[in-house]
Design goal:
four-stranded parallel β-sheet, elongated, two-stranded antiparallel sheet, alpha/beta, 182 residues
């Protein structure tokens, strides 16, 4: 595919979006290992999302998808290619990056900002140690008859009992992976 050029003839940069970690309950876009990419010819954006004490899943992925759409809408203004967007995150940010890439071919987790003109599709994903299968973290305790999960994931999902199984499946990037995924 032909690379876009700006009005002055320079190449239009690809965009990398950093998504911070913090167990979905802390962290901020201010910090990250992304500064070096600017010197390598990439445009870089760092985003925040609602934390789990503010809103439960899927609010976090809706925020990330909205941010991708917003950044695509500003591509002409800032000089990057809206058709070459990658996401990169660590831990919870890695999970959300993987979920963005895996849902490229799906509308299951789209928020209200998706449209025919602008979508949250990304072309590349870098997941630094983010979980990809939250369902594996749900355990059934035969003694108590309860479903249990790590407290951080419990805070993210915000559901109890057998509903935790469906919520974990819905929040798992592996649920959505297809040949068309980033």
């Amino acid at each position: 595919r032909k690379k876009l050029k700006a009005k002055d003839g320079t190449k239009v940069m690809p965009l990398v979006i950093w998504i911070h970690g913090g167990g979905w309950r802390s962290g901020d876009k201010q910090r990250g290992p992304f500064f070096g990419l600017v010197n390598k010819g990439f445009a870089v954006a760092s985003i925040n999302y609602r934390l789990s004490f503010e809103s439960k899943f899927p609010a976090q992925i809706h925020d990330c998808k909205s941010a991708v759409i917003y950044l695509k809408s500003k591509a002409g203004k800032f000089g990057y290619d809206p058709c070459r967007v990658g996401v990169w995150g660590a831990s919870a940010g890695g999970h959300l990056s993987a979920l963005l890439g895996a849902t490229t071919a799906s509308t299951d987790l789209d928020g209200e900002t998706e449209s025919e003109d602008l979508n949250s599709n990304v072309q590349a994903v870098c997941d630094w140690f983010g979980p990809t299968d939250l369902l594996r973290l749900v355990k059934y305790d035969r003694q108590s008859g309860e479903y249990k999960v790590h407290p951080i994931v419990d805070d993210l999902l915000g559901v109890e009992g057998v509903r935790m199984v469906d919520a974990a499946r819905t929040a798992s990037p592996l649920t959505y992976v297809t040949p068309g995924s980033a």
